[in-house]
Each structure stands twice: as C-alpha cells, then as structure tokens.
Amino acid sequence: MSLLSRHLPCPPYFRKTLTAACLLAMLQSAQAATFPVTTEDELRQAIRDANANPGANFIDIRANIRLEDGDLPPILNTVTLRGNSFSIDGQGQFRLLVIGTSNDAGGPRIYVQVTNLTLSGGLAAGGNGADGGGGGLGAGGAIRASFRAVVPQAGSLRLNGSLGGDVELQAGTRLQGTGSLLGNLVSAGATVAPGNSIGTLNIGGNFVLDAGSTLDIEIDGTGAASSSDTVLVGGTATLDGTLHVLSLPGDYSVAGKSYTIITAAAVSGQFAQIANDLVFLDAAVDYSTPGQVNLLVGRNSTPFTAASYTYNQT
Predict the structure, then answer these.
(1) Out of 13, 21, 241, 269, which residue is the most buried by the measure of CB atoms under 10 Å away?
(2) 246: phi > 0 → left, psi -120 to 50 → alpha, else beta; which?
(3) Sequence-separated (6 or more) residues with CB below 8 Å from residue 12
(4) pLDDT > 90 fraction of the chain, expressed in percent and rounded
(5) Beta-strand relationship, 185-187 and 207-209
(6) Is the pLDDT of residue 133 over 50?
(7) Do 113 and 83 touch, CB atoms closer than 8 A?
(8) Environment class of residue 1 by beta-carbon count within 10 Å: exposed (0-12), middle (13-18) or buried (19+)?
(9) Can you say how many angstroms the Cα of residue 49 is from the centroid of all Cα atoms in its chain?
(10) pLDDT band at residue 24, thresholds of 50, 70 and 90?
C-alpha cells in the first residue's frame, strides 16, 4: 500500500476498489447540514460552518437576531437561509448578508436562497457610493453581493419568499425568483431574472437597472396574461442596460404579440439595447403607456428555409 493510500481514506483514483472509509468520506462530503440559530454568535458560527461544509446547507433562523458585534461573515458556499418569519437587524451599523468577497477569482457558483426572512437596519452603500446607514441603500436591510467587476463571479440569489430591506447587486451577480423584495433594488452590472421559468418578481420600492446590467425576460406564444416574466415595481423603474428576451415554444403569429414586462408607479429611461434568441421574430419595446413597459414580438422577414439544409450541405 502506498503512503498516500495509508494516510487518505480514499485510494488513488486509478484503484478500482473503494474502501468503506472512502465511501463514508465521499458521502459525508456531499451531505448538506442544517445549522439552527437563535443568537448572533450562533449565526456567525453557522455561516462559518456552512462555508466549510461542501454540501448545499441550511441555516435555520429560530429567533429575531440583532447584530451587536460587527458585520456578518461573508457567505462563501451554497446555502438556504430559512427565516421562519424572524428577522436580522443590523441597527444601521453593520452589513447583513455579504455574498462572496471582493477578491473572488473564479470558483463554483454561490447560490443563496432566502425564505421568509426580514432584514432591517443593514449598512449598505449610500447614494454617494460611500458606506453609510442613511440615504440611498442604507434605509433598510441590505444584501451586498460582491464580486470582481472585470471577471463576473456568478453569485446567485434566488428569492422565492419575502425579503425586507434593500438589495444592491454588483457586477456579475444574479437575482432571480418569484418573491417579494420590500425595499429598493439597484442592479450595478448584474442580471435580474424574474421567475424560476416564467414568473413575477415584486419590488416594493424603486428598481434601478444601470448601463452594465441585464434584465432577462422569458416569453411564450400562448398570449395569456402570464405568458411572460414580469417585474412589478411599487416605486420608479429607472432603466438602462440590456433587455435580454428568451423565447419558449409557442405560436408567435405574424400579427405579433404584446407582453407587459414591467409595471411601476413611474418609468424613467429606456433600455440601451435588446438582445434575443429569436431567429424568426423581431422584438421592440413600447414605453407609451404610463407606468408600463411592453414588449412587442412579431414575425420578421427571415424565411424558415434560412435555418434548413439538405443532405448535400455540410
């Protein structure tokens, strides 16, 4: 037996037999763990333990928690935070959920799912870009998803429940789901994707999509009211960046179809560009209805034969 085999539970990869210890180690490495939390110290330790465990872990919040001892540690691994209708309060002084670190340089995606958890009093970037508790994103709870601006680091937040406070998404991050964000959403170079396929994302405050951001919208050809992704905004939707249209199978007639993709108290700005995977369809955006952004999709002049070939072609 080699030195490596004696000191590791699993033999080298070219061995055909797996020992019982090796199988146990492999199973344990893939197992998710649940970390129950009732205090600030337990929450900090649970985040560290979840970071160290390679499984898709759960942190179970079982009491209201007020931060007294500084920012929470960054989340570096896939995790679900189950709020159970409790809250985390940063008292306007401390960051709440920090996903990733500013010097991440690759690695696997970090999927963070938050359910039935209210964030309040979180420290986030204020209107002038400085850290502060008031104005801008400092008004409520905060999530800061921080990744390298030049190399997108694909951090994901899946929101299917209710989340209090404001959210700032930095370059390379992604927010998707059918949940409700009670505060403001600012996307600074990120991707916002309503639904888990087609669905609605609710934003209670303002929605800002900056020049480097993308709004992913899925549509189908059924023509029903629920046949496209939608963003419902309680405040003002300020638009820039890219509208990315993805089509599902359906009947997209020559006469075209209209989809309401954003409804807001007010709409400011327009998408800088439209990107799509629509080979035989054209997409345009209509901003003429106050408080709405409508996507118009219709048949273009590309013949179906353009996508066909014969056995004599390669």
Answers:
(1) 241
(2) beta
(3) 2, 4, 5
(4) 33
(5) parallel
(6) no
(7) no
(8) exposed
(9) 23
(10) very low
Minimum mean pLDDT range among 6-20, 103-117, 285-299: 6-20
**91 domain residue, yes or no:** yes
Nearest to 214 by CA among 276, 167, 151: 276
Express each pLDDT in 164-198 by its tens digit: 667 778 777 888 888 888 788 889 888 999 988 89
Tokens of 25: 């180690």
Extract the runs of DSSP E, i.e. beta strands, from 95-213.
97-99, 110-122, 124-125, 131-132, 142-145, 155-159, 162-163, 166-169, 174-177, 180-181, 185-187, 191-194, 200-203, 207-209
Range of 202's domain?
A: 87-307
Checking if the pLDDT of 263 tops 50, the result is yes
Query: Long-range contacts for 25-31 (Cβ within 8 Å, ≥24 apart)?
Result: 29/54, 29/55, 30/54, 30/55, 31/55
pLDDT of 261 strictly over 90: yes
Contact call for residues 90 and 141 (beta carbons, < 8 A): yes
Question: What's CA 250's distance to the chain center, in Å?
Answer: 27
When computed from its CA atoms, the radius of gyration of the chain, rounded to whole angstroms, is 23
Looking at the 3D structure of the chain, how many domains does it have?
A: 1
**Other CB atoms within 10 Å distance of the CB of residue 22:** 16
* Contact criterion met (CB below 8 Å) for 298 and 286: no
List phi, psi (to 5°) of 304.
Answer: -60, -25
Residue 277 lies in a domain: yes
Mean pLDDT is lowest, of 23-37, 197-211, 226-240, for: 23-37
With respect to residue 265, please indicate whether it lies within any of the assigned structural domains: yes
What are the two backbone dihedrals, phi and then psi, of residue 249, each rounded to the nearest 5 degrees? -60, 145
Residues 215-241 have pLDDT tens digits of 999 988 765 656 899 999 999 999 999
Mean pLDDT of 20-30: 49
Q: Is residue 78 part of a domain?
A: no
